[in-house]
Amino acid sequence: MQSPRVYVVSDVRLYREGLTRCLAAQGDLSVIGSGPAADAVERIARLSPDVMLLDRGSEHSLGLPSSAFAVSPALRIVAFAVAEVAADVLACAEAGICGYVPRDASVEDVVAAVLRAVSGELVCSPRIAAMLFERVAVLSVERSSMPPALESLTPRELQIAALVARGLPNKAIARELRLEPTTIKNHVHNILQKLKLHRRGEIGVPRLAASWPSARSGEPARKVRPSL
Question: Domain segments of the chain: what residues?
Fold first, then answer.
């Protein structure tokens, strides 16, 4: 079987060049290029890799997958240097990242994660697997109590809608979720279309606001971590 074609993304040149050399020495993967996050989408569109290896520490690392999928829908994304805590792993999953390796992983772990991702599998600890199942169960309960119109929204759209309902502008939401303002603008547009609303102010009306998962506690606006 042909070796998966991999593109490495990291804003730290030392990291990406070092990882590229180490992976080339392994022989199981074909590294076709590397570069910073700012150039990733353009390079991926041109090179068409099978897998993008993404440094979790890169700027807007959680916003990059959606842009990459737009030019390469079949792309598999594996994040490296991920803090193996619930919030960070859930954030990766929600962003569309299909595999990860923690900060203390070896090159062999990276290769294994990439090969698993290409096969549609995920390598994770039993603790992380249990946490992912628990989060899916919570989402199922939340969706079952939503008005039918809200069931068409994705988890990310529900999260952004909750922040819009709290009065946060797009730039503030982008900062909190570590996404580009244009990405937030597109999500808000999709939310309005799906709910058949005309203005963003309508997202916060009582009949809808009570249904936003992150708004049920009635807490004031605060930093919200991405969820699965």
Answer: 5-127, 140-215
Contact by Cβ (8 Å): 210, 216 = yes
In this predicted model, what pLDDT tens digit does every residue of 103-150 receive, in sequence order?
999 999 999 999 999 999 887 777 777 877 777 776 665 555 555 566
Question: Tokens 């969706």 sit at which residue?
Answer: 143
CB atoms under 10 Å from CB of 121, counted, come to 12
Mean pLDDT, range 6-13, rounded to an integer:
96
Strand partners, 51: 6, 76
Contacts of 121 (CB under 8 A, 6+ apart): none
Contact 63, 179 (CB under 8 A): yes
Q: Which two tokens stand for residue 156?
A: 């990310």
Q: Are the C-beta atoms of 58 and 11 separated by less than 8 Å?
A: yes
Q: What is the pLDDT of residues 69-89, one digit of tens each?
A: 989 999 999 999 998 887 788
Would you tell me which CATH number, out of the four given (1.10.340.30, 2.130.10.10, 3.40.50.720, 1.10.10.10), belongs to the domain 140-215?
Answer: 1.10.10.10
